[in-house]
Amino acid sequence: MTAAFASWVRRTPFSLAVVAATVVVVVGTRSVIYPLSRFVAGAAGLQSTDLVHGQWWSFITTLFLTQGPAGLLAALALLIGVLGLAEVTVGTWRAAALFFSVQLAAAVVFTGVVQLGGALGIEWLQGMQEATLMGPYAASAGALMAASRLVSRMWRRRMRNLVLATAVMLTLYVGHAQNLFILVAALVGLVMGMALLPARTAPYVVRSTSRETRTNLAIVVAVFAVGPLMAAVAHIPVGPLARLRNLVVNPVPSIGQLQAACTPLEESCRGLGHGMGLWGPGGHLLALAPMLLLLACAEGLRRGNRLALWMAVYLHLVIGVMSAFYLQVFAGFGLPLLRGRRVLSIDSSAWEVFPVVLVPFVIAAVLVSRRRHFHIDPDPALRRRAAVLLPIMLGAFVALYAAAWYLEGNEQGKYGFIGLFASLPRVLLPYPFPFGYGAAVYPHGFFSTLLFSMGGAALWTASVVVVLGLFLSRRVVSGPAGADKAAAAALVHRGGDSLSWMALWPGNEYWFTPARTAGFAYQEHFGVAVTVGGPLGEPADYPAAVNGFIDYCSEQSLTPCFYSLTDECWETLERRGFHRAGVATETLLDIRAMEFKGKEWQNVRTALNKAAKLQVEASWQKYSGLSTGLRTQIHEISEDWVSERALPELGFTLGTVEQLKDDNVQVCLAVDGTGRVHGVTSWLPVFADGEVVSWTLDFMRRNDGAFKGVMEFLIAEAVLHFRDQVEYISLSGSPLAVSAPEVPAAEGGPGTAAAEAPGTDMHPLLALEGTSMERILGVLARTLEPVYGFASLANFKKRFQPRHRTLYMAYQDPLSLPAIGRAVGEAYMPNVSVRELTRLLRRA
Hints:
By secondary structure, the chain is α+β, with helices and mostly antiparallel strands.
């Protein structure tokens, strides 16, 4: 901790110098205790007219001014954290240049926006013309936005999303000149960084992983959830959405306000003022319920919870609709809104109120459009308990309140029992009911008053805790599905091919022989059952498993498609009238006899020597045993890799970061002396008779700044690591890249043995034109090759002098080939939209 702090101090001299200057100015002006004098504020503070009137120095002097202890603490926190982070990222001199240049450019743009708004008669912007801007807030935010250009894609997105979302939220909900200035500075810093700083990686970013998409959506929901609270605590908020503070945060009037509103004859009203002043915090907590629920939804969104997604959508729609009624938008658009015999009007023009209603609907629409990234359901047992518990809690509270209300004689009041039912919405709903309504239904008696004031807040708090527990849970497979997965896991340990461990990944279904000694993992898409590799379990029962699965598909009106099969089951399939085509080439390394000697191993030896020179070592661990820093770097590397592609990560037989989290999977990192991860691989176990007989390469990523040859280094280290444990390892198959001599005729036939020869030339299936199946796979290969480079991956694996084994796809009816091709594409690309796929097919 001390070393980290000392390192931070050494790397942030400019930020610390600005901190020292700010403290000196604050002490000299005594602005932390007393209000800043008008003379100092006018001479050193920044106003929108300063640059027009030639007071150019104010854009610099205002950086060191703050007002009050809260302003000073906020300034110091931003300088040390935000500006310091920018300085660590881009260096001291660049950070200083960005800090002042962003401040100047933002002052110019802010002046233009305010002057233009004044000329157009926009009241909100007109009120900013005389406002005095103080502090380093905008310059720090802008410097960080500019510096984000040089960080990894994952953190770049998060930093930009958080800064912009916060700036937009403060501008819309609070709306002070300082908030708009921060937003302008953030945008200016973003543009300056893109224009002046060299990109760390490729300049285009077209894709994000599902995990990162969920994180960014959670940030947006959380930031805008606290917007009404920020408007409530701000001094005279004037933003376009400031009105929502009365909808979501409904402050209870103070005793003085109530007494001023009551006439001397209204003694009951004065008693009400005393009661509400006593129990006022309950009203505040009740008003915060939507915010707390949205924050719980944000955490659920981050975890990929599907229930949290739809609850967040529902809440934003409810807030939007309630805002529309509360702000009388219908009247604003010329449609009368009646209350009794009176026609309500609206004070502001419709365009000023429109953003209030629009923002919740926009957020809801964005969430719905990204729904494909949410796949996790809550634990069904916990969901059932919550479905029972929440109504019981509501019913128990209503019964308790009704009993207290009746026993304390409130039925003798003006409204009788109608008052009981009329008071329930005021007790339970976090809606800004008119003060007169609350006064009319306010009960008398200690317990009924206590429940009226605090009960709703307590009920909502308990409900939010229950809902948050749902979001934090996830479906634990049990019952028949759980038993099937457990049986499949047992079969995987008894026997299977190199892809057998993938049978246990999410999204798979299972079929077993009657004795459950063998079976298949498969996925169903568009009426086609696509197997995940070959059969599992006892090898002697594989023929029975193949025949049984074919019969099962016939009974269920499914088209069987055996995907990524070896030659092992071909005789059985051929007798059933199946045809086959090569879909991948598996690379196998006989590691016990492998030595990195000779000219053909020059690239591998060079990688090993370079790693030793750079002090890069291979670290073998389970994902659960990795430090937080190493995990974060893995996610950064994966995010950078996905961002460079026009499609999301593929699935089916290609693992992602989520598959690394299995403790049965071994993770190998290339880590240098500074703790930097250069590359990462993961290895899946292959079992026979309960013993590990091989390992299969799955996840393989490299850092953009890694040394050349890091992947050769990692695979060479795997050879050295596993050679005392197993006879061979598999570098897995290269999808849609096969050995040219190995590809059989689609009408059946085992194909030649040329694929078994090391060094066989690889190329994608786009060169194959012989059959309809090959043409379909050729289109898929031609589509994905520019994006994922499977043929290039196959050529890379040739450096390890492997033997090859072709993996086949077996099908029965040639007329079903279009449906099979569509099903295979859906298995690999479940999250690809029709528009994205059409665009790629046009390029093919």
